[in-house]
């Protein structure tokens, strides 16, 4: 057999639910459009193209001419459309009904709008577990692309990975192409001839081999420095020229053509895995550092080439452990999914259920559920978008169930930790309280604007903080892989790294030294003198005709002094107000104690004049990024005119109030950056007991949602 090789070029273009319109447009102008313009004249070249559902819907609305051009290339046989789950979820975190439903939903959309029914799919973030095989096959998919790393983790050698393989589960078969890590790192970062030379060597050693490149289309223009490299300096044209010049032995083919023309290399059973970098990111920070140190120490050892494949990182599902906020979103999503399944079984209107299902599917988009080099959970606008759709789905479900306009209190293990949580609900809001974790409120949904005020983020160590502390650097040489860049988007980030001892939630009860200040508390330098922040409270639910109450009580201590703390959270029917009454008992006489209640408000960003603080008289006190140290006041207001919400916190006794921003230093594809996560508001008092050893305060929070979000249908998705 004469030396030849088949090359499957598989592009994955994606923008997540909730990303800014300007980001979509910039990626279109920098990546998607210019790639198509360069590709069109090369008649001898074929590719497989996956465009995620969120991006495809945006293109259909904003740039239908782009889809017209793609459609012509599909009809010419030069582009194969690759399907997948509609809103790009990590399939392993979904129940089976949603895995199959998402894939089938997108296949139906592609059939209606592009006239193609895909036979293969893109596996989001290449997160794989064997149990997916049967579900993916049941959804009508015959093949997908993973990384060669998955196969190497199963003990296979690189020289064996020269075609696709068959995987099996419960008698169901799926064909899997091993995407080459070597090609991922040379395309487009190395000169085109290096890729050609690599493939020429394979053509001689394995004539007829099928090699697969499967990676982000954003590498071609959107990733930092790649636009000038790929287009202005002509890398993509030089690559396509090289492919064309060598087409006698180097054949670019689609995934579908490969299956038609080549037999599988054999059967494989792959371990639970994802691409190499993702397995590292899912590890705890300390474990990441250890793995990184060991890898660097071993990379020049002659044995490393044989050992590297067996040195694995972590498991994607552990992002739900690494980031408690991921588990909160996941549990909220599952709560909606379970209720939707029950509503379907009850025979509710199919059109109403389809609208709810679309919101659920949008709320499953993967990007904010994890974190690596691509922002993920650190990006508030992506977290907010997930909650926006889950809250709207929840509201619509209650509407068809007939429970929306009643006030209710329920208990259940809502976050899958083996403990009971509390859900207080009326037509204006839903408050979720965790008695086992300090009686804190961990989610607070405002239905009028579909917003979770507690979509916050705790500041925690990240392995890449070592790079931040070391300072920016230049990768040098040719354009660098996104994983090698150390770029600061702001100066002084090494001085801004800070970690939180506790989650950034609300109803967090602190005892500080009497000398504690705004600066010491905001910096996390004030010792916690009580045991009320995270330890369990006893809980009781009280239900009246027009109100419900969660009563939480703990016999704890501060400075070793036994103290009983009771807080009662009350929600009334039809009200946008939440009332919390605190009662502290068994206080020592004539011993002033410093008590504070922490509240956090997410999604109200800093740095804009239309997001501001006000005093009780309506006088503005500055933007929401300001630090406030107020004394002898009865409250504070937060306003966000863009979001359309006012939050008025009032106390029934004179209080000190601290307010400060919570900001993270995190990594994104453009570099290291400071991100505003929430506004912390902390009423505090130097308390002195009455004659009976008691002290009490009531905190009322009124929420007003202007321009309340209409419960709009997304029927255009299925147009």
UniProtKB/TrEMBL annotation:
Q: Which GO terms describe its cellular component?
A: extracellular region
The record ties this protein, via Pfam families, to: AmyA-A_glucT_m, AmyA-gluTrfs_C, Glyco_hydro_57
Q: Which GO terms describe its molecular function?
A: 1,4-alpha-glucan branching enzyme activity; carbohydrate binding
Q: Which InterPro entries match?
A: A-amylase/a-glucTrfase_C, A-amylase/a-glucTrfase_central, Branching_enz_MT3115-like, Gal_mutarotase_sf_dom, GH-type_carb-bd, Glyco_hydro/deAcase_b/a-brl, Glyco_hydro_57/38_cen_sf, Glyco_hydro_57_N
UniProt domain Alpha-amylase/4-alpha-glucanotransferase C-terminal: residue ranges: 413-699
Which keywords accompany this UniProt record? Answer: Carbohydrate metabolism, Transferase
Residue ranges of the TM segments: none
Which part of the chain is the Alpha-amylase/4-alpha-glucanotransferase central domain? 314-397
Q: What is this protein called?
A: 4-alpha-glucanotransferase
Task: Name its species.
Answer: Rhodopirellula baltica SWK14
- Lineage, highest ranks first: Bacteria, Pseudomonadati, Planctomycetota, Planctomycetia, Pirellulales
